[in-house]
Amino acid sequence: MAEIIKMPRLSDTMEEGTVAAWLKHVGDTVQEGDILAEIETDKATMEFESFHEGTLLHIGVQEGETTKVDALLAIIGESGEDISTLLSTDAVTDEEATEEAPSQKDAAVSSESVDVPEGVIVVTMPRLSDTMEEGTVATWIKNVGDTVEEGDILAEIETDKATMEFESFNAGTLLHIGLNEGESAKVDALLAIIGPAGTDVSAIASNFVVETLGEEEAPKVEASKQAPAPAKEENVPQITQTSTNGRLFVSPLAKKIADEKGINLTQVQGSGENGRIVKRDVENFTPATTSTSTAAVAKFVPSGQEDFDEIKNSQMRKAIAKALTNSKFSAPHYYLEVEYDMDNAMAFRQQFNSIPDTKISFNDMIVKACALALRQHPQVNSQWFDDRMKLNNHVHIGVAVAVEDGLVVPVVRFANEQSLPQIGAAVKDYAKRARAKKLTPQEMEGSTFTISNLGMFGIDSFTSIINQPNSAILSVGAIVQKPVVKDGQIVVGNTMKLTLACDHRTVDGATGSMFLQTLKGFIENPVTMLV
């Protein structure tokens, strides 16, 4: 199905863009991550990459032409696909979009209600991926009062795909922060205000919230009615400042050091801005001594007391929930469970790893075996779309990796063409960077089949939800030592259970079963993978 590519907003102030150069032409094949064009914004000329794959069917803006953000830029789809309906529909949309509309700043801050001082720039939540609808501020790199130069990193923004650095396209002083770390907002919501030092922007900030989000202004608490601060008690650790929702203000580096040292951050006094805990606070922290009776009271929890921690859903968690819910209730899942003899595989791995500077895991062997088996069973390597089925001739295997916020699936591309050590190196690198949130969106896209392995956690067998639009996912359990029958005798053997979840729209039971038979041959006789 054809995808409409619209003029992206590549800077926070961009309202229109000019195509400086097309790097792809009508009829060219486009892969995810390919550079489509160079787009000239109000700030710079930037490369614009594709988040879709297919054939470039239509170019809506010629080189040197200018159009509004969100206007038709191109259409990508299947070669020969009829896109006449899309062109007529999008033409109406473009006409509506080109009607006189307020600028970004005017839309954000009404000139009738508040004057915007000269040099003041309202920075809004950017759209850092084609599917991004809202973002979360993971970390502020700059603080209120800091000097900002063009190109400086303002913050790290967590999208539905990755955590990405957001740089400033303006110079000045950071006058206001619209979102605290950990808070989320829709694309185009107020993120920050930059301008000349000392400028009062309180009216701009409050007006932006009222008019853009439609929220009522929170009632102001008079100073005379505020509760007085409690008097400090001796020998009681001073608690650092928290936000109104109880969240600690702490830098990521300070949090990491505290976790490594086992320090309770609620006992650390922050010396940063607004009581924020920074690196030096954790490094210089010494636990306060308390009397035995005080400590006993502090640790006592009455029997039956209800207690809970509330954790705000991250963008990754929201994206996982949405994708898996859609998959579970739209794809008719069925499951095929098998148990393979792993004696030969264990001996093969031990012998393979005896080679100097070589180390492969059972997971690497399963990835390779699946890749080879998928080449023989393209129906299992297929993808379902509303109007067609795609039988992939290439094998890109997604390997599920557990991270703090949920699950990511980096992709080992052309896995059938890679050696076992190459697959092992790729998976190890992906897992390391996944846990550090350093994977790019392109490294997590384009899979044709997925493997989820919980064997290292002692799980014997389990079922997984298909990673759409793929047609199948393989769940891998632990290798278990147990009595087995060989040549009519009960002996000690090593077995492993695998469960293949299939989409019945594309993979029939017999097809899935034949794939597992081929897979059995590679896993139980791994030397055949080297032939």
Characterise the protein shown here.
This protein folds into 4 domains: 3-98, RNA polymerase II/Efflux pump adaptor protein, barrel-sandwich hybrid domain (OB fold (Dihydrolipoamide Acetyltransferase, E2P), Beta Barrel), CATH 2.40.50.100; 104-213, RNA polymerase II/Efflux pump adaptor protein, barrel-sandwich hybrid domain (OB fold (Dihydrolipoamide Acetyltransferase, E2P)), CATH 2.40.50.100; 237-287, Dihydrolipoamide Transferase, CATH 4.10.320; 315-530, Chloramphenicol Acetyltransferase. It is globular and about 90 Å long. β18 (382-385) and β19 form a beta hairpin. The protein has 11 helices and 26 strands. The protein has helices spanning 84-98, 104-108, 202-213, 252-261, 279-283, 292-299, 315-330, 343-352, 362-376, 420-435, 509-524; strands spanning 3-6, 16-22, 29-30, 35-40, 45-49, 54-59, 66-68, 72-77, 121-124, 134-140, 147-148, 153-158, 163-167, 172-177, 184-186, 190-195, 333-341, 382-385, 388-391, 397-399, 401-403, 406-408, 411-412, 449-453, 472-486, 489-503.
Task: Briefly summarize what is shown.
The chain has helices at about 85-100, 105-110, 200-215, 250-260, 280-285, 290-300, 315-330, 345-350, 360-375, 420-435, 510-525; strands at about 5, 15-20, 30, 35-40, 45-50, 55-60, 65-70, 70-75, 120-125, 135-140, 145-150, 155-160, 165, 170-175, 185, 190-195, 335-340, 380-385, 390, 395-400, 400-405, 405-410, 410, 450-455, 470-485, 490-505. Strands 17-26-25-24-20-23 form a six-stranded mixed β-sheet. Strands 1-8-6-3 form a four-stranded antiparallel β-sheet, with helices on one face. Strands 5-4-2-7 form a four-stranded antiparallel β-sheet, with no helix packed on it.
